[in-house]
Every structure is written in structure tokens, then in C-alpha cells.
């Protein structure tokens, strides 16, 4: 009802989709998840309160979007002249192999499989909310790669992320709702996720995957040129293959920016 009185796409896009929220059973045994969700709902509540006192609803203006900067070592900035095309929350798994059977070897990255959800308006309106969304989303497994919206928000699906070979991450942003293009990529730069980045579901895991700058390969459509992976949550493999199966998945979430806006940086 608040979406009707408040003609404002951004908050409506993160507003709770209560019927899909089946989190309560066993909640007391999961204090860390509860704390993550409680921080999220508190922030949402504050936005609603702030919105009520505004004379006009905030507008989804991409000029206000910011690119989070890794600290202490930032990724190279976006190339000059690029404008913001899309911001998505990616939710899925990082895949690893321990196929050699060597228990002391490190698991080998096979790639990722994730569903992308449209967060462009949140990026331009509430970057603080956006920065915690990967960790919130990490607490809920997808029921399928085609899950229409991202629990516990109602962000709509905007594409899929997968690997066509181990060095080629692909982003397919061509859905029935919108065609923002297709981007086969290669890695341009990587920096460790900041200290304190969410380690995994329930705060337990091997840490957050690195922040990345990707550049598109030949064949990209939709004017996509550079893609950043930031605000990562979970996804890292254990240090060794000890006790691990031949292949395994680690749940992760991240913010993907296609391509970042001008150099307005969020420290
Ligand atoms: C979905 O993505 C498109 C392209 O980035 C953007 O114009 C639109 O505002 C987005 N919608 C929401 C609700 O974020
Ligand atoms: C197993 O992996 C470790 C660590 O990479 C390496 O030092 C060792 O040589 C490997 N053992 C075999 C049998 O390949
Ligand atoms: C998500 O799925 C993995 C198996 O892929 C499972 O180990 C994990 O407990 C699930 N997490 C939640 C929060 O349901
Ligand atoms: C992976 O795919 C890319 C793009 O199609 C190609 O350029 C590259 O040679 C491939 N790499 C391997 C190891 O097959
Ligand atoms: C997007 O998908 C539609 C339907 O599959 C297809 O006709 C169109 O060519 C695609 N666009 C791009 C840029 O590949
Ligand atoms: C990353 O991009 C910069 C600027 O385009 C380029 O100079 C550099 O060679 C690239 N590095 C890699 C590893 O692709
Ligand atoms: C790894 O990713 C592929 C898709 O790329 C998927 O089909 C598979 O189930 C995943 N999991 C494992 C353990 O390989």
C-alpha cells in the first residue's frame, strides 16, 4: 500500500515481499542472520520514515549512483566517458574443483553461476542500503536460477551470470523485461575484499570473493564495456581440498556495476 501512496520505484523495489519470507522457523538458533536482517529492516524503516517527511518522493536518478571503492587498494577507475547502464545484485554460487585428489592442494576455481537482480534505482537513491544487500541476499538460497525476485526484497530479475570457460565470465542482461545486452568478459584487475566483508551464510565461511574489474571481450552487445564486482559477500573456497568433494559450490552474493558512472566514489 505504501508503494501506491508513494510513487517511488526505488523503495518499492526493496520493500518486503512478505509472503515469500519463510525465515522464522529456527530463527533463535541463527542470531547472526537475525542481526543482518534486523539491520536491513531498520534501514528500510528509516527510509520510510524519511520518505514520509519529504515533500516529494526521491527520484531514481542514475547521476547519483556511486561506485564503492576497495580499501586500502582501490580497483582502477572506470574508463573516462562511460555512463551507468545498470546495477545488479548477483546471487548464486562460486564453483570449485578438488578433482586431483590432492588433500593439501588449493581448490581450483571453476567459475560462478548467479542470477542478477535489478538494483539500479537503489544504487542511485540509497547506496547505503545497496551496500548491505549482498549480505542480506546471501542469507537466502535461490530456489532456482530463474527465481523472479530476490528474497527478502522484491528486486526483479535482470539477467544471468555464468562462465563459458574458466577465464570467460559472461553476463546475459537480455530478459523478457529489458534487453541491456550480453557481455563475455575477461578479468582486468582484482583486489581482496575489504577486511570485515561478510564471510558466508550466518557469518560463517571462508570469506568474501575478491572485488574485480572486468572488461568485455569481442562480441559484447548493448554498449557494455566494463563491469565491476564490489560489495562481495561469501563465495571463497577453503584453503585446501582436505575433506572436500571433487566439485563443490560456495554460496555468494555481490553487487555488479555495468559500467560504473563517472568518478563519484563512495569511500
Ligand atoms: C532496472 O534497470 C534499468 C536499467 O539499468 C533501470 O533503468 C531501471 O530504473 C531499473 N529499475 C529498478 C527498479 O531499479
Ligand atoms: C599437492 O599439493 C601441494 C600444494 O599445492 C603440492 O606441494 C604437492 O606437490 C601436491 N602433491 C602432489 C602429489 O601433486
Ligand atoms: C543453501 O544451500 C546449501 C547447499 O547448496 C546449504 O548447504 C545451505 O545450508 C543453504 N543455506 C540456506 C540458508 O538455506
Ligand atoms: C575461453 O573463451 C574465450 C572467449 O570465447 C576465448 O577467447 C578463450 O580462448 C577461451 N579460453 C580457453 C582456455 O578455452
Ligand atoms: C535478446 O533476446 C531476444 C530474444 O531471444 C533476441 O531476439 C535479441 O536479438 C537479443 N538481443 C541481443 C542484443 O542479443
Ligand atoms: C587493464 O586495463 C588497462 C586499461 O585499459 C590496460 O592498460 C591493462 O593492460 C589491463 N590489464 C589487464 C591485466 O587486462
Ligand atoms: C557448478 O556450476 C555448474 C554450471 O556452471 C552447475 O551445473 C553445477 O551444478 C555446479 N556445481 C558443481 C558442484 O559443479
Explain what you see.
- The chain has 267 residues and is α+β, with helices and mostly antiparallel strands.
- The chain has one domain.
- It is 19% helix and 33% strand.
- It is built from 5 helices and 11 strands; from the N terminus they run H-H-H-E-E-E-H-H-E-E-E-E-E-E-E-E.
- It has an 8-stranded antiparallel beta barrel. A two-stranded parallel sheet has the order 1-11.
- A hairpin with a 2-residue loop joins strand 5 (155-165) and strand 6 (168-174).
- It is globular.
- The two termini are 35 Å apart.
- Mean pLDDT is 84; it is low at 1-10, 16-24 and 262-267.
- Residues 102, 104-105 line the site of one 2-acetamido-2-deoxy-beta-D-glucopyranose.
Work out the number of β strands. Answer: 11
Question: Could you give the order of the helices and strands?
Answer: HHHEEEHHEEEEEEEE
The assigned structural class equals alpha+beta
What portion of residues belong to β-strands?
Answer: 25-35%
User: What's the rounded overall pLDDT mean?
Assistant: 84
Total discrete domains? 1
Give me the number of helical elements. 5
Helical amount: 10-25%
Strand order of the largest sheet: 2-3-5-6-7-8-9-10
- The residue ranges in which pLDDT falls below 50 over 5 or more consecutive positions are 1-10, 16-24, 262-267
Described by strand count, sense and barrel closure, the largest sheet is:
8 strands, antiparallel, barrel
How far the N terminus sits from the C terminus, by CA atoms, comes to 35 Å
Shape: globular
Bound molecules: 2-acetamido-2-deoxy-beta-D-glucopyranose
Rg calc: 18 Å
Amino acid at each position: 500500500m505504501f508503494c501506491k501512496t508513494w510513487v517511488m520505484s526505488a523503495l518499492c523495489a526493496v520493500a518486503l515481499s512478505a509472503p515469500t519470507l519463510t525465515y522464522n522457523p529456527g530463527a533463535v538458533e541463527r542470531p547472526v542472520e537475525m542481526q543482518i536482517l534486523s539491520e536491513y529492516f531498520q534501514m528500510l524503516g528509516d527510509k520510510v520514515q524519511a520518505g514520509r517527511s519529504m515533500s516529494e518522493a526521491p527520484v531514481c536518478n542514475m547521476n547519483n549512483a556511486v561506485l564503492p571503492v576497495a580499501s586500502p587498494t582501490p580497483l582502477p577507475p572506470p574508463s573516462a566517458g562511460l555512463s551507468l547502464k545498470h546495477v545488479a545484485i548477483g546471487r548464486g554460487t562460486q564453483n570449485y574443483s578438488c578433482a586431483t585428489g590432492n588433500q593439501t592442494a588449493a581448490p581450483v576455481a571453476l567459475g560462478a553461476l548467479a542470477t542478477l537482480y535489478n538494483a539500479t534505482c537503489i544504487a542511485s537513491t540509497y547506496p547505503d542500503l545497496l551496500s548491505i544487500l549482498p549480505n542480506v541476499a546471501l542469507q537466502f538460497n535461490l530456489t532456482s536460477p530463474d527465481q523472479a525476485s530476490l528474497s527478502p526484497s522484491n528486486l526483479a530479475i535482470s539477467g544471468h551470470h555464468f562462465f563459458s570457460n574458466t577465464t570467460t565470465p559472461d553476463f546475459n542482461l537480455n530478459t523478457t523485461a529489458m534487453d541491456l545486452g550480453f557481455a563475455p568478459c575477461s578479468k582486468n584487475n582484482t583486489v581482496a575484499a575489504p577486511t570485515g566483508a561478510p564471510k558466508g551464510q550466518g557469518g560463517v565461511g571462508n570469506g568474501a570473493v575478491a572485488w574485480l574489474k572486468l572488461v568485455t571481450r569481442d562480441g559484447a552487445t548493448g554498449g557494455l564495456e566494463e563491469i565491476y564486482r564490489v560489495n562481495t559477500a561469501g563465495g571463497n573456497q577453503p584453503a585446501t581440498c582436505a575433506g572436500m568433494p571433487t566439485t563443490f559450490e560456495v554460496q555468494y552474493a555481490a553487487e555488479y556495476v555495468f559500467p560504473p558512472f563517472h568518478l563519484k566514489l563512495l569511500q
